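[step 3/7] fold_predict: job queued, chain A
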Amino acid sequence: MDKFKKFTGSVVPLDRANVDTDAIIPKQFLKSIKRSGFGPNLFDEWRYLDQGQPDMDNSSRPLNEEFVLNDPRYQGGQILLTRDNFGCGSSREHAPWALADYGFKVIIAPSYADIFFNNCFKNGILPIVLNNEYVDNYFALSGGESALELTVDLEAQTLTMADGEKITFDVDPFRKHCLIEGLDDIGLTLQHSEKIRAFEAQRRAKAPWVFGD
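[step 4/7] structure written:
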C-alpha cells in the first residue's frame, strides 16, 4: 500500500445520500480479486447509459453526461465529496478498490457505513467525517466554473482551501499511522517478520513432522 502524503487535489461533488456499495461497484464486476482494474466501472450504472459487463470496452460505451464523473470540471479529481451513510449495503471490499483504482485518495462525508469505513483505511483511502455545515459549504463551492481544490494534510489533520481557509478533522491515531506509513494488514504483520521466522524455526525443530521433514 502506498504511503499517504500531503497533496492538493480537486473535489468531485456526488450530492447523494445512502450510496450503497452496489452503486459504487455493481455485483457483476465482483468476480476478480486483483484489487485493480475496477476504476472504469466505478458508479457504472450512473456513469454509463448501457448495461455494463466485465471485460467490456468502456471507451466505446455511451456516457451519462449528467453524471458528475463525466463532467469535464471534475476530471482527475482525487477527493470525493458526498452525503450521509456513504458505502452502505453489502460489505464488498471491491468498493474501496474501485474508488482507489479510479484515483480517489480521500472521501469527505458526514457519515459512513461501518464496514466500508474500515475497508477504506485498509486500502489506502482516507475517509474524513465532517459535519453537515462544512459539507454543505464545500458543495456550494464545488458548483462553480472550476472544481474546488483542497490541500489534504493527514499529519496535521487539516483541509485547506486555496484562499487559506483551513479546517481540522479527526482520525484514529493508529489508522493515521498506518496510512502515513503505507501499512495494510499484511504490512503490519510483516513488521514482525523476524519474530515469525524465529517462531517457525523453533516450531520446526520441535515438531518436524508437521512440516513434512
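[step 5/7] annotate
The beta strands are 7-13, 79-81, 106-109, 126-129, 149-153, 158-161, 166-168.
Residues 11 and 79 are 5 Å apart (CA to CA).
exit 0
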